[in-house]
């Protein structure tokens, strides 16, 4: 049946639009409007189709471009001091105990650890009487004479014996030596050489005139040193951390720590850049982010044998070694000690004895210390400056001394409850002189029986990263006391991370002053397995090795507190003022 003219025309138009070979009959007059409408409709449909196709192609090209660029460009990403893992990664983290450490850092940590480990005697004590005895050991003057001259050296030889009177054939005893004259409040420590055969030589420099007493204390016999080192690195069971998880209606406590022996899900709080991590058992119905507070207690646990525990009884710690001499007499012999004229500066540290006390004033041997013990002098020096104190309560003493004793700073909006929570960040200011001083604790490991907030916490390296720095910025750091109960590798890694943070700081702000207050001696009657000064002694030497070559100042608080014999964790004001003075002397341009 023959198609109508209208049908034939529609067919021709469709072939034209589709691109088929065709020819178009001239439309008759009454079909022109219909044809035009049909063409317009199909072209619109066609344009919509091509528009969608082009848009899809553009999106594909854009995605490929971004993927390519991601391979070529490091896109800045938000980082946080603590990053939570998924449940799966939590289980993986638990099985591996700690986050992986980059090979180079891992090797360096092992090098330092092994270096210290080789220097520690490996002794398995079964008979208490075979340990070094202060009463049986003998201290004698090598260069004995009737009188000594100012500036001379006094040499004392120590021969170690056990409780049975047998001469020791190996070294490793932890000794502490000092000279002092109570009349002038003068004192200094001695330099000890261990010959690793039971014999020790101590060199004292005679810095002042008068009657001088020399003492050598047996802090720990080598058998206790061996036990302390082994116990420290054997595990994490001595300290129990408890984390407080909080919601709007309830809270729950769960065990936390550097290592957890559990099959439960755990939360990993990790700094992935610096490879430092801490863990908590995850409570049901609480996200990992709900952790708000932390505390720690000494667990009823020990890695020591019963015989080794006896060595750490207070009666066996810091006992004076018997000697065959009393006081010695020092005169000027026509000599005068010429004090150094060059001010103490950053980038240097010196072996013990690095100085001496005279009339309760610290006198560095190699440089001149400016005394900052008066309000006006401190205010003039600190005018227009920011001081960031980072670490434990021994550096917190600075801000408390300024605000509570010298009273030239005012605490900023701290309530009574906040002051009672000693771990809380402290801020003190002097508006008239534009002085800003802040103390903030370092985070894990941090030991405290009372619960403290961790929401403001950050590792020391991260805190340094957050400081802009500048010519009027002073950063004073201390790390050590809270690290003593834990595996030594944790301290080494933290110290390396702090060093790298300081290097980054000096790139962006080379004029910032960084001072390291080294850890001081502490009490002899507080849990020696966890907090013995032997642990601090090792950390003291390692910290110097790690920070060697950096333009930072060192405040030898260990030397000062040994010389002064202030065996308390928070040195008295006479020593504190000298520690502060050494800090600010090195922070002077």
From TrEMBL:
A Pfam family of this chain: NXPE4_C
Stored SUPFAM superfamilies: E set domains
Residue intervals of the NXPE C-terminal domain: 362-584
Superkingdom classification of source: Eukaryota
Alphabetical keyword list: Membrane, Transmembrane, Transmembrane helix
Family matches, as InterPro entries: Ig-like_fold (IPR013783), Ig_E-set (IPR014756), NXPE4_C (IPR057106), NXPH/NXPE (IPR026845)
Transmembrane segments: 49-68
Protein family (similarity comment): Belongs to the NXPE family.
Protein's UniProt name: NXPE family member 4 isoform X1
Species this chain originates from: Xenopus tropicalis
